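Appendix C reproduces, verbatim, an entry submitted by the partner laboratory led by Prof. M.T., so that reviewers can inspect both the input and the predicted structure.
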Amino acid sequence: MTTDNAPASMYRTTEGLGVWEHKGKVAAVGIGHSPTARRWDGRPETSVGANSILALRRAIEDAGVTPDQVDGLVLAPVTTTGAHWPEGTPPPMDVVNAFNPTSDPLDGIAQLSAEWLLKNMPELENVKFTMYGPGCMSAAIVVAAQAVGEGRTHTCLVL
């Protein structure tokens, strides 16, 4: 499954558009969070990928749905810190090997992809819609709400 950035048509960027056509048809019903730390300690279980999986599983539980009901995933693909991985520095192999990797060894460490999350959350076997809402969490929420309103997904996780 290929994950693309949301097209401009998913954002309401023009004044005077009136009431959103999906008002009253879309709801956010669950929230999940993970522990936060000032700095990463280098352990696999505290990586951005592991913490993201934890937050998504908590959101599923809080929403009162089962993983097989989730059919969509929208995310901002950068870490919340915006941290970069130092060029020329290999990622810690114990962290890479603790997860099902993608072709990018920094996936789950310094960034996230929908592909990485789905490879590492096998319970999300019914996800058929993925999209990036790049820039920030609010962009990802907008994209997910629009996708639900348009019928592209019914039960969508946002990260």
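Residues 43 and 95 are 7 Å apart (CA to CA). Additional entries are available on request from the coordinating office.
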